[in-house]
Amino acid sequence: MYGRYTRSLGEYAREQAAELRELQKNNKREEKIRNKELRSYRGKWTSRLFRVVSYTWRHTFAKIGEDWIFLALLGSIMALLSYIMDYGVSLCNTARMWMYFELTNDPAVRYLSWICLPVFLVLFSAGFVYLLAPQAIGSGIPEMKTILRGVVLKEYLTFRTGIAKIVALTAVLGSGMPLGKEGPLVHIASIVATLMSKLVTSFKGIYENESRNSEMLAAACAVGVSCNFAAPIGGVLFSIEVTSVYFAIRNYWRGFFSAVFGALMFRLLAYWLETEETLTAMFRTDFRVDFPYDPHELFIYALIGAFGGLSGALFVLCHRKYVLFMRKNKRISSFLQKNRFIYPAVVSLFIATLYFPPGLGQFLVSTLTTRQQIMSLFSNFTWMSDDLTAEQSEIVSHWTNEYSNIFVTLGIYMATTFFLTVLASTLPVPSGSLIPIFKIGAAFGRIIGEAMHLWFPEGIRIGSVISPILPGGYAIVGAAAFSAGVTHSISICVVVSEMTGQIQHIIPVLVAVLVSNAISTLLQPSLYDSIIMIKKLPYLPGIISSSSAAYDIFVEDFMNRNIKYIWNGMTYQELKTVIKDKPKIRSFPLVDNPRHMVLLGSIQRGELIELVKRHIGHDRRVKVAAQRQIEIQSRSFGHVIPINLDPPPCCRLGETEESSLTHDPAKQQQQTSRFEVVKAPDDLGNGLITDTAIQRSSQQLQQLQLITLLPSPEPQTPVSIQSTETDEEAQPRKSILKKGNRFSSIRSKSSQQTIQTTPNSTITGSEGSIFIRQHKLNDMTPEEKKEWEESEMLKPVDFHKCHVDPAPFQLVERTSLLKVHSMFSLLGVNRAYVTTIGRLIGIVSLSELRKAIEDVNSGTLTRATVRSRLQSFAVGRHYPVVVSI
């Protein structure tokens, strides 16, 4: 009898546990699906790491000063990363030279040893980036220019992208490809700043506030440039020129502080690790100070600047034409997409073959590193002199051979590096172009300097003083001029001065840079703007000053009239549909109703997602389920629920013995055996225990469990449960539910004692020893949950529960294109709502504005062309065509 009852109880418990486990799995599965539909998911370990570091920051550095510590850490981290990458590149170059010079003298084996490492490193870099983060491909400055403009590029500032950029950049630079690292370092610095802002709780505003985010990213761009060239002042100015249209002066100190800290740590690391004797410039020069140049030479410097502007525009044009040719050729494009490693392998093999020292490499100085090449080009002695020291002869020996002289070698070096840089910059790897461009300009300047020394071997006479020609000064001017022609930046002259440690040639450098910039601006856009055009990034181009149509085109001529909006009184189901249909929209306009379209404000996407989740989430569903159980039990038993603790017939004690135990005080003091055999009552019939009796007992137990676990409407106040039986009559039931229960402690209590329970208590008063937690038990069944969610999603949305921006950026319909461009560029907004007397009639985003500016600049959008369009929209202008959800 006892075994039959316990088996029935065990089966019931297992069934309930299985149902609860299945219910919990369904809840987790639905939560994941909802998160995947409405927002991106962040990993569990990433979230834990963020919380730990945020807690540490909040209790340490945040008390000192957040901005200072943040910027100092940013500079230190970038200096360390830059030095580690340089060290890795140096190891790769050393290994390559060792394999070439030390292995064997067989030309075939030496050729294989020369090309195997570059090809392997390029393939590794391409594969690593493709598998981990394709966003790491390329320079990084064009994308950062777009991000600082206010555009959000997906997965571009993530940890995965940073790791891919660092590892792949080190590999591709170690392969010896004619590429640089200034652009990737800017990208890496921006990633580090973004990750640090996410880690710090007190800096949460940097990540959520667009204005503060732009400030820190601007400082990160300056750090990236300064850690590459060890030029803090030029790095700040260069980053402002190439990434910003309007720059806030309040961010000036942030950029300088972090850039100085990064450049200082970068040079200190080189000194501490004994790679440098002291803190010096990267490409130290020692030109004479008394007569560094003659005033007559300024004309030659201006000619160098003109050549730099023309050649810089040619470089940008060749790069864009080659990339577009590769993309427009469908056969080549489809073949390379299916075989992603063929193009990197072929290009790297071709470049490595050209750099092979016994071949064309003897004209390309392939046995010298990039730093050694620039240092030799900046040397302050003439290479054609007959009186050279041993050290000077060693430098000149790399630039001369038995087949040519210095001018031929420098010409081949300049032309080959020019086209190989264009070719290598199309590899699907992280890469920059400023260092190869710098070398090309320095080679041209060196040619002019050596020619000037050949024409004026004694120097230029100034009165009674003869000023000698310094070919290294011409090389510096040529490097600055060509770099300015490619990047369209004036600050490159400051970068060159800090890199070389020379201020004597600042006037010639400025003259050449200004001339180069003026010519290249008229011919071609900058390299970074050209890449923006190739990738079709959402960046606003400039309006041509001579275009008068910009004053005649208004915002109503190019705005988007098909608006996705939310309105007051919409249901949760309609709101969820709007969010799912437009996953890229970050903010939705709120109107009063679809008919009048009066703009009330705008709500961020995250706020709407949280609103829907709170309405049909797990916590609210559990509360509703518990309230339903309370209402059901209240209707069945009243406010005070009497619990019938009668044991089932199969295990009921004899009434005679129980009544005598209750009324006889002497017998109450005796210890009754728990296994006392009593006579079965007469209602058992022939003494057989039927299945109906066992089932009825299980039903009573289930009802008892439900009543026991029923939560109180006010959890702070214990629930009073009044028993209709004496404690002795409930003893067998308690002994079954809890082992080791002693009746002596219960007999000492009054028979009318009130049992104080908590929401998680069992019949015997134990907390959670048998039953599962309350919030799991009180959940709905899948059918009830589906029905409840459907009914809840049909209720109207209460927008008072979320934050509403009451004053979003608005434009009137007659705002000119020129004003719209100025406001978008100055304020950094991504969208603006177009209203007329408070009514929403359209929206303008960066894509519509960029298309309008391009059409105006090309002449396809004029007042005459939009006049017919306005007539077709005459009705729609006051009653816009709106797609309602």
Topology at a glance:
Elements (H helix, E strand, L loop, with lengths): L1 H37 L5 H15 L7 H37 L4 H26 L8 H8 L10 H16 L7 H18 L4 H5 L1 H20 L2 H12 L8 H21 L24 H32 L1 H9 L3 H13 L15 H8 L12 H8 L8 H19 L9 H22 L4 E3 L2 E3 L3 H17 L4 H9 L5 H18 L3 H9 L30 E2 L4 H10 L5 E5 L7 E6 H12 L1 H20 L17 H9 L1 H4 L22 H18 L10 E3 L9 H7 L5 H5 L7 E3 L16 H4 L4 H12 L16 E3 L4 H11 L3 E6 L2 E7 H13 L4 H10 L13
Parallel strand pairs: 3-4, 8-9
Antiparallel strand pairs: 1-2, 4-5, 6-7, 9-10
Helix pairs in contact: 1-28, 3-4, 3-6, 3-7, 3-9, 3-11, 4-6, 4-14, 5-9, 5-22, 6-7, 7-9, 9-10, 9-11, 10-11, 10-20, 12-17, 12-19, 12-21, 12-22, 15-18, 17-18, 18-19, 19-20, 19-21, 20-21, 23-24, 33-34
In short:
This protein has 885 residues and is mainly alpha-helical. The strands form four sheets. Strands 3-4-5 form a three-stranded mixed sheet.
Notes on the protein architecture:
Among the domains are: 68-274, Clc chloride channel (Orthogonal Bundle), CATH 1.10.3080.10; 295-384 and 398-535, Clc chloride channel (Orthogonal Bundle), CATH 1.10.3080.10; 548-618 and 786-875, CBS-domain, CATH 3.10.580.10. The protein is 58% helix and 5% strand. The chain is built from 35 helices and ten strands. The strands form four sheets. A three-stranded mixed beta sheet has the order 3-4-5. It has a three-stranded mixed beta sheet with strand order 8-9-10. A two-stranded antiparallel sheet has the order 1-2. β4 and β5 (599-604) form a beta hairpin. The radius of gyration is 40 Å and the shape is globular.
